[in-house]
Amino acid sequence: MSEAAVAKSLQGFKTWLVRDAYPLWSERGRDEAGGWIDRIGLDGRAVAGPQRARVQARQAYAFAVAPAFGWSGDWRAAMRRGLDQLREAYRRPDGLYRTAPGAGGAADLYDQAFVLFALAFAHRAGEDGAAPAAEDLLSRLAPNPRGGFAELDGPALEANPNMHLFEAFMAWSEAGGGTVWGSLADRQAELVATCLLDAGSGAVVEHFGPDWTLPAAPSDRVVDPGHQFEWAWLLLRWSQAAGRARDLRTGLGLIELAERAGVDPARGVAMAALDGDLAPTDRSARLWSQTERLKANVLAARLTGDPGCWAAAEAACETLRRYLDVPVAGLWRDRMLADGGFVDEPAPASSFYHLILAFQELDRLVG
Predict the structure, then answer these.
(1) Would you state the pLDDT for residue 102?
(2) Is 322 exposed, middle or buried (0-12, 13-18, 19+ CB in 10 A)?
(3) pLDDT digits (tens, 9 = 90+) for 274-284
(4) Helices 307-324 and 2-16 sit at what angle, rounded to 10 degrees?
(5) What's the CA gap between 16 and 13, in Å, rounded?
(6) What confidence category does residue 225 fall into, taking pLDDT thresholds of 50, 70 and 90?
(7) How far apart are CA 245 and CA 329, in angstroms?
(8) In degrees rounded to 5, what are phi and psi of residue 239?
(9) Rounded to the nearest 5°, which phi and psi values hold at 108?
(10) β strands within the chain, DSSP E
């Protein structure tokens, strides 16, 4: 039975997290000057380079939930390391968080979403200053009149940061942050139905003009299969919280679309990009897309009992094991090429968040 196979995979993933990944990243992922580094080479050595705000936020989240997996390390100090770095090196005088440290650094909506997300889990972990910090940041974001939130540096609108704001708003709603967060999450779910779906393909498109206008040419309508799974998972979860059948239907439809058009049957992986006609334009396959496929399908399987979703979740578990098969346990490969080989490159810290979210969802649903 596929459900039993997924449950068995979960035990292996949890062992990997506690025995290998958390110890490695807590020790070798630290920058002694403060915060967390962006990459560790597959030889286990830290790679020098710019530190992104999203990595500080994602690592804060990763360690905030470490006790739930049974890790006995100093998770609170690790969580605070990311939060402190965000506050001290990334927060600008205007209250927004810059993408990279340095005076006058640019800020984007995507990074603000992850700061809010990290603060939600810090709040759940008992950090007193998390709620006021989140409320302050929220007050500095600009809602778009048609729905969602505007970019910080121009009129174009993007689906991806709004997806992660949806995720952050749900995290705050679940953390007991107050009714405002649930209302904001509901607004993001509404955005999908009213603005983000291409009526022709049924997919969530990535890039929009002002007022959520779709690019005219199908070749300009970028569709990311991993994001179809990610939006689906969020909508399925929100359908449970809000009791809305429409969001359940939309989420299941996005999973069906992504499995049909976005998963390469030869390699069994979610590909990087399709066009507006759902033809592949980038057949490479990132690790994070496989985690999104896993958690979307396992939730859909639990809600519907569909054996096809259980089979897809089982296949995604098998795929993830291929990405985690590296010389130094606790690291991962990030990008598979169209021929099935992997790019020889360092493991990005940003992927830890994706892995842990997937394993959290497995633990919630089949653990």
Answers:
(1) 79
(2) middle
(3) 999 999 999 99
(4) 30
(5) 5
(6) very high
(7) 42
(8) -60, -35
(9) -130, 165
(10) 39-40, 46-47, 157-158, 207-208, 263-264, 269-270, 273-274, 280-282, 285-286, 335-336, 347-348
